[in-house]
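Morning run. Coffee first, then this:
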Amino acid sequence: MLQKVFLVVLLALCFKGHSQYKFEGRIAENIKGKTVYLSIIEDYRKLSRPYMEQIIKRTTIDSLGVFKFSGNNLSPDNRIYRIHIDECDTGNLDSNHFFGRCENSRSILFIANNRDTIAFPTSFADEVLCEVTSTNAKSSVFLEIDRLKEEMAFDFHDFPSQASRKLNTKKWFATLQEFGQSLEEPLAELYIFDFLSDKRNETYPYYLKDLGRNDYYNELGQRLETKYPNTVFTELYQTEIATDLFLVTQNKTLGLDWKLILGSLLVLSLVLNLYLLSRQKSFQKNRKTNSLDKLTSQEQNIVNEILKDKTNKEIASDLFISLSTVKTHINNLYKKLHVSSREDIKKLFP
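And here it is:
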């Protein structure tokens, strides 16, 4: 363990001042060539599995079973990231495999920023993507929270009576909220909030009751606004809390039944999803515009030719330039756009 820590610190010193991240992990030599995905998660309601729109980078596992992500294009502030891999044979892959719904899928959530050096070593039992060694003290907080949630599950399992469940729910709401606040990282508190307020969990009815009598939720909103202003997840949280609090208050005042409340929540959830979809499209549009601004007019012409599935020879003929000039321009494109293939360019400019 000391060697791992020393390695991470040494790497951090090497990259200090360059504002460059490096994420590296070991999987297994027998699955070399598999694709590993790096995602950023702005919507905390989409923490349970990978989503296509979250993916920002991909790489492959080398002959030693190692994968690496590096660069300088991440946020300078902490964000929630996911690394995801599927160990199944390529011929057997389907959408369930890609989206982490099979037993051979592996993923890990962690907190990072553009300056972090992070290692994902195999554990003593050769388990993968279950440990984090990082220059960022907040990177592994989700693993700490998951261990606490396992204790909660054992509590509920050992005493399944209704009376015990009620007492345990109250106890674990307070325990998890206090633990999240002690971490001094609002992103960790969002991870806990997503779990406790999930409509699919048995904790949801208690959350609605707790919301109307506990100042914790407003205080978390203030912490998010202070540390992460003008972000999608802060706006989403504030909107969701305001909506839920309004419905709880209205129910107390007017005596509305739960069916109407749940129906209203579903409608409001749809509105929130549409809002986030609009934000995502705007983000992709701005990303495309910013990427184009980096390119010369000739490089933009070559991008257009690539989008038409033209070969290098066809591009050289259409633009009246030599084949070697085309190859030089394409190499420059890869560097400027932080991509490694024509397919990546097509995804960047859909």
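DSSP finds 13 helices and eight strands in the chain. Good start to the day.
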